[in-house]
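U., I forgot to send this yesterday:
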Amino acid sequence: PTITTNPGTTVCAEDVTNLVFTANTSNAQLSDTYQWAINGTDVTIANGYAQNETGATYQVDTLGDITDGAIVTVRTATAAPDSCTETSPGILMSISLVPTANLDSNATAETICDGGSIVITADDAGVGATYAFRLNGVAVPAGEVVGRVYTTTAITQQSTVTVEVASAGGCSAIDTLTIFVPKVATAGTVSANLDDLVLCPGDNIANDISSTNAGTLDASSSAGSVLTYQWQERNATTGNVWTNLTGSTSSALDISATPLSITEDTGIRRLTFATVNTVSCTVIGLPSNIININ
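Result:
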């Protein structure tokens, strides 16, 4: 007898159970019997296999039944009066391991700000492996990929990056990484007590600057995003540059926690940010209206 193998003698380890071996004999009779063997051991329950393989065809039952370099044979016996038993030539199997597809990034908790740069790296699958990256299902520009590393600034909202890794043996695996992006939509507004808008030099602001509108998150902001804040001042002392007020990160400016002595015309505002996974997108905070104190 001879053996036909479908889909072939070279397969990936994850596809072993798709293998179907067929015994081919001359003048086959319904009374003929068959016994399949791997490396000379009959495929039987007694030998630890899932079932006795005694038909003219044999589909592999378990992934580990056939490993790289295994030899498959079939023994055919004819009924009387011939009562002949013959064993086929062996079929040498080549089984390639499936590569590991695993993505990681240089971003904290896989979180970036809108349009921020991120480097995403796939595990090394060995010599001859190839890596195909997709962003939200679309192939990424070739210029953004070097080997197994994908660098981009094209992610502007929560997205999925997928890599398909193909080994030199022709086997492939896929992994997906979710990239989170917190986004703020509106800054909101703040309001001061009228009595604090005109002060004498050296006077302190007496009342909190309140939040009349806390701002809003963008509809595409990653789930779990929250609004965070930073209060700033600007005057001649700061070189007319907006400067953070240390510790002032609530929606309202608590004067008891941050006393402000006004010695010159001063502007005060609040920046509103979106934060998720402890990552706050401080670069693109949105400014509120300005409170001018004279």
